[in-house]
Amino acid sequence: MTRAWFITGTSSGFGRHLTAQLLARGDRVAATARRPESLDDLAARYGEQLWRSRLDVTDTRVLREVVDRAFADLGRIDVVVSNAGYGLFGAAEELADEQIDRQITTNLTASIQLARAATPHLRRQGGGRYIQIASIGGQVAFPAMSLYHATKWGIEGFWESAAAELAPFGIGVTVVEPGVSRTGFGAGGAVLGAPLPEYADGPSGRLRGILSGDLPPLPAPGDPAKIAAAIIASADQAEPPFRLTLGSDAYALATAALRSRLEALEAGRSRAHSTDADDFTAPASAGVVGG
Q: Which is catalytic among the residues 86, 148, 199, 251?
Protein backbone atom coordinates (compact mmCIF):
# COMPACT_ATOMS: atom_id res chain seq x y z
CA MET A 1 0.00 0.00 0.00
CA THR A 2 1.50 3.32 -1.07
CA ARG A 3 1.24 6.38 1.13
CA ALA A 4 1.72 10.12 0.86
CA TRP A 5 4.12 11.83 3.26
CA PHE A 6 4.80 15.46 4.22
CA ILE A 7 8.34 16.00 5.53
CA THR A 8 10.18 19.12 6.69
CA GLY A 9 13.94 19.60 6.50
CA THR A 10 14.56 17.28 3.55
CA SER A 11 17.75 18.78 2.15
CA SER A 12 20.03 16.64 4.33
CA GLY A 13 20.20 14.19 7.23
CA PHE A 14 17.22 12.08 8.19
CA GLY A 15 14.86 14.12 6.03
CA ARG A 16 16.86 13.42 2.89
CA HIS A 17 17.18 9.71 3.70
CA LEU A 18 13.47 9.41 4.42
CA THR A 19 12.56 11.13 1.17
CA ALA A 20 14.86 8.99 -0.97
CA GLN A 21 13.75 5.69 0.60
CA LEU A 22 10.06 6.52 0.39
CA LEU A 23 10.30 7.52 -3.25
CA ALA A 24 12.24 4.36 -4.02
CA ARG A 25 9.47 2.20 -2.62
CA GLY A 26 6.78 4.04 -4.57
CA ASP A 27 5.31 6.45 -2.01
CA ARG A 28 4.59 10.09 -2.77
CA VAL A 29 6.49 12.72 -0.79
CA ALA A 30 5.73 16.39 -0.19
CA ALA A 31 9.26 17.51 0.65
CA THR A 32 9.96 20.93 2.11
CA ALA A 33 13.32 22.57 2.70
CA ARG A 34 14.95 25.95 2.78
CA ARG A 35 16.83 24.79 -0.33
CA PRO A 36 14.44 22.60 -2.34
CA GLU A 37 16.93 22.63 -5.24
CA SER A 38 18.99 20.20 -3.16
CA LEU A 39 16.43 17.59 -4.26
CA ASP A 40 16.89 18.19 -7.98
CA ASP A 41 18.40 14.72 -8.47
CA LEU A 42 15.39 13.05 -6.87
CA ALA A 43 12.98 15.21 -8.85
CA ALA A 44 14.69 14.19 -12.08
CA ARG A 45 14.41 10.51 -11.15
CA TYR A 46 10.89 10.40 -9.69
CA GLY A 47 9.02 13.24 -11.42
CA GLU A 48 5.54 13.96 -10.05
CA GLN A 49 6.02 11.42 -7.28
CA LEU A 50 7.99 14.19 -5.53
CA TRP A 51 6.24 17.43 -4.57
CA ARG A 52 8.57 20.20 -3.43
CA SER A 53 8.26 23.55 -1.73
CA ARG A 54 10.63 26.07 -0.22
CA LEU A 55 9.97 26.47 3.49
CA ASP A 56 11.59 28.08 6.49
CA VAL A 57 9.60 26.46 9.30
CA THR A 58 10.06 29.51 11.52
CA ASP A 59 7.69 31.49 9.25
CA THR A 60 4.34 30.29 10.63
CA ARG A 61 2.23 32.03 7.98
CA VAL A 62 4.15 30.41 5.13
CA LEU A 63 4.21 27.08 6.98
CA ARG A 64 0.41 27.04 7.05
CA GLU A 65 0.20 28.00 3.39
CA VAL A 66 2.59 25.23 2.36
CA VAL A 67 0.73 22.62 4.43
CA ASP A 68 -2.62 23.67 2.93
CA ARG A 69 -1.20 23.57 -0.59
CA ALA A 70 0.39 20.15 -0.10
CA PHE A 71 -2.88 18.60 1.12
CA ALA A 72 -4.78 20.26 -1.73
CA ASP A 73 -2.32 19.11 -4.41
CA LEU A 74 -1.83 15.54 -3.12
CA GLY A 75 -5.44 15.01 -2.11
CA ARG A 76 -4.47 13.05 0.98
CA ILE A 77 -1.37 12.93 3.19
CA ASP A 78 -1.06 9.92 5.46
CA VAL A 79 2.08 10.78 7.47
CA VAL A 80 3.38 14.20 8.57
CA VAL A 81 7.04 14.20 9.61
CA SER A 82 8.42 17.10 11.64
CA ASN A 83 12.16 16.80 11.04
CA ALA A 84 13.60 20.30 10.59
CA GLY A 85 15.91 21.34 13.40
CA TYR A 86 19.48 22.03 14.48
CA GLY A 87 21.70 22.15 17.56
CA LEU A 88 22.70 25.23 19.54
CA PHE A 89 25.67 24.57 21.80
CA GLY A 90 27.39 26.46 24.60
CA ALA A 91 26.79 27.33 28.21
CA ALA A 92 23.50 29.16 28.72
CA GLU A 93 25.36 32.34 29.64
CA GLU A 94 27.31 32.21 26.37
CA LEU A 95 24.23 32.23 24.14
CA ALA A 96 22.83 35.38 22.56
CA ASP A 97 19.15 36.27 22.95
CA GLU A 98 18.64 35.91 19.20
CA GLN A 99 20.23 32.44 19.23
CA ILE A 100 17.93 31.32 22.03
CA ASP A 101 14.83 32.64 20.26
CA ARG A 102 15.84 30.99 16.97
CA GLN A 103 16.54 27.62 18.62
CA ILE A 104 13.17 27.53 20.37
CA THR A 105 11.30 28.77 17.30
CA THR A 106 12.90 26.21 14.98
CA ASN A 107 13.00 23.10 17.16
CA LEU A 108 9.90 23.57 19.31
CA THR A 109 7.45 26.22 18.12
CA ALA A 110 7.65 25.20 14.45
CA SER A 111 6.88 21.56 15.29
CA ILE A 112 3.85 22.68 17.31
CA GLN A 113 2.67 24.97 14.52
CA LEU A 114 3.10 22.19 11.95
CA ALA A 115 0.81 20.00 14.04
CA ARG A 116 -1.72 22.81 14.36
CA ALA A 117 -1.65 23.39 10.60
CA ALA A 118 -1.99 19.74 9.59
CA THR A 119 -4.46 18.49 12.20
CA PRO A 120 -7.63 19.93 10.57
CA HIS A 121 -6.71 18.16 7.32
CA LEU A 122 -6.01 14.85 9.07
CA ARG A 123 -9.28 15.07 11.00
CA ARG A 124 -11.29 15.74 7.85
CA GLN A 125 -9.74 12.83 5.99
CA GLY A 126 -10.42 10.44 8.87
CA GLY A 127 -6.96 10.02 10.39
CA GLY A 128 -3.24 9.86 9.75
CA ARG A 129 0.02 9.88 11.66
CA TYR A 130 2.54 12.37 13.00
CA ILE A 131 6.18 11.41 13.29
CA GLN A 132 8.25 13.81 15.37
CA ILE A 133 12.01 13.57 14.97
CA ALA A 134 13.15 14.41 18.48
CA SER A 135 16.34 13.10 20.09
CA ILE A 136 17.60 11.01 22.95
CA GLY A 137 18.34 14.54 24.17
CA GLY A 138 14.64 14.61 25.10
CA GLN A 139 15.28 11.95 27.76
CA VAL A 140 18.77 12.84 28.98
CA ALA A 141 20.74 16.07 29.27
CA PHE A 142 24.38 17.11 28.99
CA PRO A 143 26.09 20.40 29.89
CA ALA A 144 26.61 23.00 27.16
CA MET A 145 23.43 21.86 25.42
CA SER A 146 20.80 23.41 27.68
CA LEU A 147 18.74 25.20 25.02
CA TYR A 148 18.82 22.24 22.66
CA HIS A 149 17.60 19.99 25.49
CA ALA A 150 14.91 22.53 26.40
CA THR A 151 13.41 22.19 22.92
CA LYS A 152 13.62 18.39 22.83
CA TRP A 153 12.19 17.88 26.31
CA GLY A 154 9.55 20.46 25.40
CA ILE A 155 8.41 18.73 22.22
CA GLU A 156 8.20 15.39 24.04
CA GLY A 157 5.89 16.97 26.61
CA PHE A 158 3.79 18.56 23.87
CA TRP A 159 3.23 15.22 22.14
CA GLU A 160 2.57 13.36 25.42
CA SER A 161 -0.46 15.62 25.80
CA ALA A 162 -1.47 16.13 22.16
CA ALA A 163 -1.36 12.41 21.33
CA ALA A 164 -4.27 11.81 23.70
CA GLU A 165 -6.19 14.71 22.16
CA LEU A 166 -5.74 13.34 18.64
CA ALA A 167 -6.33 9.63 19.24
CA PRO A 168 -10.16 9.86 19.02
CA PHE A 169 -9.77 11.16 15.46
CA GLY A 170 -7.64 8.22 14.34
CA ILE A 171 -4.47 10.35 14.38
CA GLY A 172 -1.47 8.55 15.84
CA VAL A 173 1.86 9.93 17.05
CA THR A 174 5.38 8.53 17.15
CA VAL A 175 8.27 10.46 18.73
CA VAL A 176 11.64 9.33 17.38
CA GLU A 177 14.64 9.48 19.73
CA PRO A 178 17.85 8.85 17.78
CA GLY A 179 21.24 8.80 19.44
CA VAL A 180 24.38 10.31 17.93
CA SER A 181 24.17 9.63 14.21
CA ARG A 182 26.39 10.19 11.20
CA THR A 183 24.33 13.02 9.73
CA GLY A 184 26.78 15.92 10.07
CA PHE A 185 24.46 17.36 12.73
CA GLY A 186 27.33 18.27 15.08
CA ALA A 187 30.33 19.56 13.18
CA GLY A 188 28.40 20.61 10.10
CA GLY A 189 25.11 21.86 11.51
CA ALA A 190 26.09 23.17 14.93
CA VAL A 191 25.59 26.76 16.07
CA LEU A 192 27.83 27.96 18.91
CA GLY A 193 27.44 30.74 21.41
CA ALA A 194 30.20 33.29 21.91
CA PRO A 195 32.85 31.69 24.16
CA LEU A 196 33.46 33.13 27.60
CA PRO A 197 36.89 32.44 29.15
CA GLU A 198 35.28 31.33 32.41
CA TYR A 199 33.88 28.25 30.63
CA ALA A 200 36.94 27.39 28.55
CA ASP A 201 38.12 24.55 30.80
CA GLY A 202 34.67 23.09 31.39
CA PRO A 203 32.14 21.14 29.31
CA SER A 204 31.45 24.07 26.98
CA GLY A 205 35.12 24.40 26.09
CA ARG A 206 35.47 20.66 25.54
CA LEU A 207 32.41 20.56 23.31
CA ARG A 208 33.81 23.41 21.22
CA GLY A 209 37.01 21.44 20.82
CA ILE A 210 35.09 18.40 19.62
CA LEU A 211 33.00 20.37 17.14
CA SER A 212 36.04 22.24 15.79
CA GLY A 213 38.04 19.05 15.35
CA ASP A 214 40.66 19.99 17.95
CA LEU A 215 39.50 17.08 20.12
CA PRO A 216 38.47 13.56 19.05
CA PRO A 217 34.83 13.34 17.90
CA LEU A 218 32.11 11.70 19.91
CA PRO A 219 31.30 8.10 18.93
CA ALA A 220 28.51 8.12 16.36
CA PRO A 221 27.02 4.64 16.07
CA GLY A 222 23.84 5.71 14.29
CA ASP A 223 23.52 4.94 10.56
CA PRO A 224 21.08 7.54 9.20
CA ALA A 225 19.91 5.27 6.38
CA LYS A 226 19.07 2.51 8.87
CA ILE A 227 17.37 5.01 11.16
CA ALA A 228 15.25 6.28 8.26
CA ALA A 229 14.30 2.70 7.37
CA ALA A 230 13.27 2.00 10.98
CA ILE A 231 11.12 5.14 11.03
CA ILE A 232 9.37 4.11 7.82
CA ALA A 233 8.86 0.57 9.14
CA SER A 234 7.25 1.96 12.30
CA ALA A 235 4.61 3.72 10.21
CA ASP A 236 3.80 0.38 8.55
CA GLN A 237 3.02 -1.26 11.92
CA ALA A 238 -0.58 -1.86 12.90
CA GLU A 239 0.18 -0.35 16.33
CA PRO A 240 3.25 1.89 16.05
CA PRO A 241 5.06 2.80 19.29
CA PHE A 242 4.66 6.24 20.82
CA ARG A 243 8.42 6.44 21.39
CA LEU A 244 10.93 5.00 18.95
CA THR A 245 14.40 4.95 20.51
CA LEU A 246 17.06 4.26 17.88
CA GLY A 247 20.77 3.56 18.38
CA SER A 248 22.65 1.48 20.92
CA ASP A 249 23.86 4.67 22.61
CA ALA A 250 20.33 6.05 22.81
CA TYR A 251 19.07 2.83 24.39
CA ALA A 252 21.86 2.76 26.97
CA LEU A 253 21.49 6.44 27.87
CA ALA A 254 17.70 6.30 28.18
CA THR A 255 17.83 3.12 30.26
CA ALA A 256 20.35 4.59 32.70
CA ALA A 257 18.50 7.91 32.96
CA LEU A 258 15.09 6.36 33.55
CA ARG A 259 16.42 3.90 36.14
CA SER A 260 18.18 6.71 38.00
CA ARG A 261 15.08 8.87 37.90
CA LEU A 262 12.87 6.06 39.18
CA GLU A 263 15.30 5.25 42.01
CA ALA A 264 15.31 8.90 43.09
CA LEU A 265 11.52 9.01 42.93
CA GLU A 266 11.16 5.86 45.03
CA ALA A 267 13.60 7.25 47.60
CA GLY A 268 11.29 10.24 48.08
CA ARG A 269 8.04 8.26 48.23
CA SER A 270 7.28 8.80 51.92
CA ARG A 271 8.12 12.50 51.70
CA ALA A 272 5.79 12.91 48.71
CA HIS A 273 2.90 11.20 50.51
CA SER A 274 3.53 13.19 53.70
CA THR A 275 2.40 16.41 52.04
CA ASP A 276 -1.16 15.22 51.25
CA ALA A 277 -4.03 16.84 53.12
CA ASP A 278 -5.19 14.77 56.13
CA ASP A 279 -8.68 14.22 54.65
CA PHE A 280 -7.47 13.26 51.16
CA THR A 281 -8.31 9.82 49.82
CA ALA A 282 -6.49 8.74 46.66
CA PRO A 283 -8.87 7.99 43.74
CA ALA A 284 -8.63 4.67 41.95
CA SER A 285 -7.17 6.42 38.93
CA ALA A 286 -6.28 9.96 37.96
CA GLY A 287 -6.12 11.20 34.41
CA VAL A 288 -5.22 14.82 35.04
CA VAL A 289 -2.33 16.13 37.12
CA GLY A 290 -2.12 19.82 37.91
CA GLY A 291 -0.87 22.42 40.30
A: 148
